[in-house]
Amino acid sequence: QITTNSTNAYERTGSGSTTLGELNNYKTSDSATITVAKPTVAKTLWSTSIENSVNSKNQAVIGELATYKIVVTIPQGRTPAAELIDRMNPGLAYVDQGVAVNSNPTVLTVPGLNTSPVLSSAGRVATWDLGDIVNTDTDSSTDETITFFVETVVLNVNTNHSGVRLNNRAQLKWNNRTASSNQARNRDVTIIEPKLTTTKTVSVGGLGGNPGDPVTYTIVIEHDATSQTNAFEVTVDDIVPPEIASPVLTSVNDSLGYVSNANFELNGSTLSTTGPFIFEKNPSGRTITLTITGTLQGPFKANQQITNTDYVRWTSLYASPSQITPNNPNAYERTGSGLTNKGQLNNYVASSTAAFTVNTADLAVTKTVDNASPNVGDTVTFTVTVTNNGPQT
After folding, report:
1. CATH number, domain at 166?
2. Domain range spanning residue 16?
């Protein structure tokens, strides 16, 4: 206080107080906002287990493996109680992981980097407990990252069919899941499927359906126009009707020359496949033709129809692997068994039927008398005539 003669005899300051003078407004201020970087996640398709001319990296058949690369960028500072969560749609399940990579262990500490994930929802959710992540780097020009390689399997479930895109997403959560990164989504894999067709015809020689006439069945197998990739473990089954005596597999003609009579066995009336084979999608136009011959034998009922059906089955993978991972009950290839104990859908089967009708005689009976008005004691002769009005005998 400069003098006691006035209560305001003070210098002016920036205190904002009015106890040492009425006005102390000598101050100014400014503000700046600093945004602390958050972790970010990126997820890309790394590879698929089958890559060829009819199954690209971005395509997968049922039971095929797809490996994803997940890169988590860690900002400077501390990221407490961090968890990486990888969520897969119902068509995928976790199988395994590669070695996780820390881009700079000198400054980046990730306690749970090499731990296995905790699985839930039948292997469709994988959670890595990474612990308290600490990044002591002071150079913002270089990012520190951790990288995971996650192997998944395309499940044999009803929702997985040709054209379906498999969606999955990864996200980092921390601070007891009160904070989270972006959701890194990936839909790069599309399901493709093989599809075969079979066409059966029958030819009856001789009189066209009498006992002793030769019968020839022809089975032609090829890819359906909608088929997208190779069919594996192909089998052909047929039971020749009992009305066909002494059936013989007379020929097997593969337009590419890979499949022969040695792949099949005709035991009695039962045709089976002893050597399952691959039916490649390319080159297009490939056919496999089986010819079975026999002799028509009686007895028959009038106008009886003789029907014969063959079945062609195949799988989505080579060599019929067992369950691909125990993490999910549907981690199997797709087959033509029709069963649901190894996946929900095993409909890789095609069939075709050929039929013919046996001949019957077209008989007409007439009766005549030589004397329509006989007297008592006359001899009367009746004549019965049976006529075949048709070509049959």
Report:
1. 2.60.40.740
2. 1-29
Residue 142 located in a structural domain: yes
Same domain, 100 and 162: yes
Extract the tokens encoding 393. Answer: 């005998």
Q: Is the same domain home to 251 and 352?
A: yes
Report d(CA 271, CA 157) in Å as an integer.
Answer: 31
Q: Which of 191, 207, 241 is the last residue of a domain?
A: 191
Q: What per-residue confidence (pLDDT) applies to 176?
A: 96
Provide the pLDDT for residue 391: 46
In a domain, 376, yes or no: no
Alpha-carbon distances of 85 from 122, 184, 238, 263, rounded to whole Å: 15, 11, 51, 49
* Cis amide linkage into residue 283, ω under 30° from 0: yes
Domain boundary among 150, 173, 191: 191
Q: Which of 318, 313, 59 is nearest to 196 (CA)?
A: 313
> Please, what's the b/e burial string for 148-159 (b: 16 or more CB within 10 A of its CB; e: otherwise)?
bbbbbbbbbbee
Residue 260 and residue 170 share a domain? no
pLDDT profile of the chain (393 residues), mean per 10: 88 88 88 84 98 98 99 97 98 98 98 97 99 96 97 98 97 98 98 99 94 97 98 99 97 97 98 98 92 91 91 98 98 97 97 93 82 90 78 49
User: How distant is the alpha carbon of residue 182 from its chain centre?
Assistant: 30
Domain count across the chain = 3
Contact 171, 357 (CB under 8 A): no
CB 172 within 8 Å of CB 32: no
Same domain for 21 and 146?
Answer: no
Residues 21 and 4 in one domain: yes
Q: Which pLDDT score is estimated for 190?
A: 99
Report the pLDDT value the prediction gives residue 390, as an integer from 0 to 100: 44
**Do residues 81 and 225 make contact, with C-beta atoms less than 8 angstroms apart?**
no
Q: What is the DSSP string of 308-364?
A: EEEEEEEESSTT----S-TT-TT-S---SS--SBTBS----EEEEEEEEE-----EE
Is 172 within a domain? yes
Q: What are phi and psi of 213, to 5 degrees?
A: -75, 140
The pLDDT value recorded for residue 387 is 76
Cβ-Cβ contacts under 8 Å for 304 (sequence gap 6 or more): 243, 357, 358
| Residue 346 placed within a domain | yes
